[in-house]
Amino acid sequence: MPKTWNIKIDNHFQANPNCIIATAHVDSFPIDLPLEPNIREPNRKSATYRQIFDSLTTQPDKFFSRHSGIVLSANKAKPNRNKTELELEILEASEGGSDGIINGGHTVLAFEQAKNYKYDLTEARVKITIHIGLTEESAKDIALASNTTTPVDSRSKVNARGDYKFIKQYLAQLERAEDRKFRIAYYQNQSGAPRNAQCNVNSNSQFAIRNSQLRQFSVGSVPPAN
Fold this sequence. Notes:
Strand content: 15-25%
Structural class: alpha+beta
Radius of gyration: 20 Å
Number of domains: 2
Strand order of the largest sheet: 4-5-1-2-7-3-6
Shape: globular
Largest sheet: 7 strands, mixed
């Protein structure tokens, strides 16, 4: 079932039939939006996160003018009757959707932490751009173009294009056959994946992977594919 999120706003306009741009309140901004369209997970140890958090908490009234905004994807989006909120319908990945945060994962993480530390964010505002009804490919294209604050590593871009699907499919079959779980980092800051560089998929190893030499990723003694 699709989920619905409400975002409190000051104003909005329809940039085109499939795009809404609005000024949103930070203090009530939903912090549990899916990160599915984003090509990497936010990292609270990164310089990007620290800069956003410091800007938000030291001068929240100036945050809007100092931040480029958040980019979202939604299956549907519409203002309420009083035009004080936007209602977003989000399809999760399991439902075939690519909805959620396209760009702005570090920003939403900063919102969450600032709220946890009881900062007063009532004056803080943020620009949001909502793309409606995007295909998975279009969402990934926008994510690749939008994530420019800090460099996105090559494996994240390759993963966003879907070029690791054959590896994931191969390993899924192997997991079922051998009753064990392989942990490989397909994209930047991936939670639950080892930090060891040998466990990262990267574009320089694809030739070896295509020849089924998967043991290069330190996932155990994986036999070559037939």
